[in-house]
């Protein structure tokens, strides 16, 4: 008996000396066989945008959108500033965005950074390379590429491929033609040598362009069989997950996701578009993505792990053996942690991800005090904290949703659940002249979108997307929801009225 107690104490002291004293346990995910512990690793951060694992120092380095590169010690949980990048232009979604840490066995180690700058009123997206020393110093910045930027749609993520080339996913800089123009470097996946030159074996000789037709890629990762995956924000519909092949055209802005081309013109029939392997309508705003190859959590082996902003969740996308299809999708932490921005897997099979609750578009109830945070998922023997069960995602089954549900799916990410919007960014729909006003004008806004209007003395930078893909009954349900709620008292629309407005607009489809 006493021997047993001694043995128990001995084992206990070994385990407790390994466990890190300042772990804050949030909960345990029950996967049946495995249990996965969710802990908080760091807090009080300011919109961390990209996480990278440093193999030399066994720590995490991360970017914050305003221009900081910081380092998280995984043992002590101490966070230190490595460098403030000097010329970052930060406003709304612009700033210091994606990065990639390159630590080859031989040769210099580099940190590649993507960030926006502003000169003479023009915004640019820049790809920089810093030398990253063994002591985590950042030295000798070198500008590798500078392309057009905008107040939004600047992407971006960077990875070092298995072929030791850089892949840079660039945004379309909110332009209508960049993504389809093979001479423009926006709305593309670019393939680049680590010194900034064009690889001799690129698919188009003397061009960085590797694949095109993208709107705003936020996630980029590579699987075991060299397949590159991206996650991308659609406009009002069809967020996408794509499997990237050289020279393929992913269609933006001519087509959205799995929908047919917007204009049925002959010149489009000559083009071949590559459809996404998964798309989401209503949109979820997919962000960072990591491929899970670890054996620690066998249930997740050969899956993509995706953070989402709008749907405030972490998703596990199980891949088929060949990595070319998604066979299952599970949703974790729905509405528990807020907006999630970036995710990585560490060599030991742990997963790290971060929140983005202090960014330009906070969701209801966020930011919480001490946001933003970095979290860890690691295999555990004993459950602790709250019990978290993954929810299996089911694709929208086509049944008609209520005006309130439709508003939550399509409008509330900008105008907010209470209709009050964000002052200066998204107009309030509360007690609104337009919402209460002439029916045809209101239907026009919904069906065609709106831009560059001055509303109550405010000029809006962002534009309102077109929702002409909605069925007549759905459009009527949304309009009636906003006209009779949010302190508005407008008369309601019939489905026939909507049909009429569509005919007048030539939107009859
Ligand atoms: C991506 C963000 C976004 C989404 C999603 C969005 N809107 Fe808007 N909306 C805007 C912006 C920005 C404006 C102002 C546009 C401008 O004039 O430049 C606007 C303007 C409006 C206006 C005019 C307000 C006024 O006082 O003149 C109405 C009405 C409106 N939106 C309704 C909706 C409805 C209904 C939905 C959902 C079907 C929706 N919006 C979805 C961004 C959005």
What attributes does this structure have?
509 residues; alpha+beta; Neuraminidase; Cytochrome Bc1 Complex, Chain D, domain 2; 2 domains; 6-stranded mixed beta sheet; 5-stranded antiparallel beta sheet; 29 strands; 14% helix; 33% strand; binds heme C
Characterise this structure:
With 509 residues, the protein is of the alpha+beta class. It has 2 domains: 20-392, Neuraminidase, CATH 2.120.10; 403-505, Cytochrome c-like domain (Cytochrome Bc1 Complex, Chain D, domain 2, Orthogonal Bundle), CATH 1.10.760.10. It has 8 helices and 29 strands. It has helices at residues 2-18, 266-269, 403-410, 412-415, 433-436, 439-448, 472-484, 495-505, and strands at residues 24-30, 35-42, 48-54, 59-64, 68-72, 79-84, 96-102, 110-119, 122-132, 138-148, 157-160, 166-169, 188-192, 209-212, 217-222, 228-232, 239-244, 278-280, 286-292, 303-308, 313-319, 326-332, 340-345, 351-355, 374-380, 386-388, 391-392, 454-455, 458-459. The strands form 7 sheets. Strands 23-24-25-2-1-26 form a 6-stranded mixed beta sheet, with no helix packed on it. The chain has a 5-stranded antiparallel beta sheet with strand order 19-20-21-22-27, with no helix packed on it. Strand 11 (157-160) and strand 12 (166-169) form a beta hairpin. Helix 3 (403-410) crosses helix 7 and helix 7 crosses helix 8. Mean pLDDT is 90; it is low at 9-19. The protein binds heme C. Residues 236, 410-411, 413-415, 426-427, 429, 432, 434-435, 442, 445-446, 450-453, 455, 460, 462-465, 467, 478, 482 line the site of heme C. Keywords: Heme, Iron, Metal-binding. One of its GO terms (molecular function) is heme binding. This is C-type cytochrome. Residues 398-486 form the Cytochrome c domain.
């Amino acid at each position: 008996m006493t021997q047993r107690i001694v043995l128990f104490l001995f084992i206990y002291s070994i385990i407790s000396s390994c466990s890190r004293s300042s772990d804050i346990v949030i909960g345990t995910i029950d996967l049946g066989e495995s249990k996965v512990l969710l802990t908080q690793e760091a807090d009080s951060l300011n919109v961390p945008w990209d996480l990278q694992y440093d193999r030399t120092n066994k720590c995490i380095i991360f970017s914050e959108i305003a221009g900081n590169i910081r380092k998280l010690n995984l043992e002590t949980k101490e966070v230190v500033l490595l460098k403030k990048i000097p010329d970052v232009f930060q406003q709304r979604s612009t700033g210091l965005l994606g990065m990639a840490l390159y630590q080859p066995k031989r040769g210099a180690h580099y940190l590649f950074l993507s960030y926006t700058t502003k000169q003479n009123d023009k915004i640019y997206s820049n790809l920089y390379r810093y030398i990253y020393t063994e002591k985590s110093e950042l030295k000798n910045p070198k500008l590798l590429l500078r392309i057009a930027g905008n107040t939004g749609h600047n992407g971006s993520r960077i990875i070092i491929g298995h072929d030791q080339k850089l892949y840079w996913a660039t945004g379309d800089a909110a332009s209508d033609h960049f993504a389809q123009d093979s001479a423009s470097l926006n709305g593309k996946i670019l393939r680049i040598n680590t010194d900034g030159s064009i690889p001799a074996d690129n698919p188009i000789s003397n061009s960085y362009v590797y694949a095109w037709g993208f709107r705003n890629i936020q996630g980029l990762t590579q699987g075991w069989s060299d397949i590159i995956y991206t996650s991308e924000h659609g406009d009002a519909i069809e967020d996408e997950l794509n499997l990237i092949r050289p020279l393929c055209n992913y269609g933006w802005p001519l087509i959205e996701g799995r929908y047919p081309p917007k204009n049925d013109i002959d010149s489009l029939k000559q083009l071949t578009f590559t459809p996404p392997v998964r798309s989401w309508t209503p949109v979820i705003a997919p962000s960072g993505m990591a491929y899970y190859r670890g054996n620690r959590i066998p249930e997740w082996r050969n899956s993509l792990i995706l953070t989402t902003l709008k749907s405030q969740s972490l998703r596990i996308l199980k891949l088929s053996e060949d990595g070319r299809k998604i066979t299952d999708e599970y949703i974790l932490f729905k509405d528990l942690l807020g907006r999630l921005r970036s995710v990585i897997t560490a060599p030991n099979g742990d997963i790290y991800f971060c929140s983005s609750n202090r960014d330009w578009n906070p969701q209801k109830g966020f930011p919480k005090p001490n946001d933003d945070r970095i979290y860890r998922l690691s295999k555990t023997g004993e459950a602790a904290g709250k019990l978290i069960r993954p929810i299996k995602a089911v694709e929208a089954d086509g049944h008609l949703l209520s005006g309130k549900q439709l508003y939550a799916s399509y409008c509330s990410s900008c105008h907010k659940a209470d209709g009050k919007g964000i002052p200066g960014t998204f107009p309030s729909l509360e007690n609104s002249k337009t919402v209460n006003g002439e029916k045809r004008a209101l239907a026009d806004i919904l069906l065609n979108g709106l831009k560059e209007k001055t509303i109550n003395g405010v000029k809006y930078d962002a534009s309102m997307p077109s929702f002409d893909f909605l069925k007549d009954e759905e459009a009527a349900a949304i309009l009636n929801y906003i006209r009779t709620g949010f302190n508005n008292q407008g008369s309601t629309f019939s489905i026939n009225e909507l049909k009429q407005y569509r005919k007048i607009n030539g939107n009859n489809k």
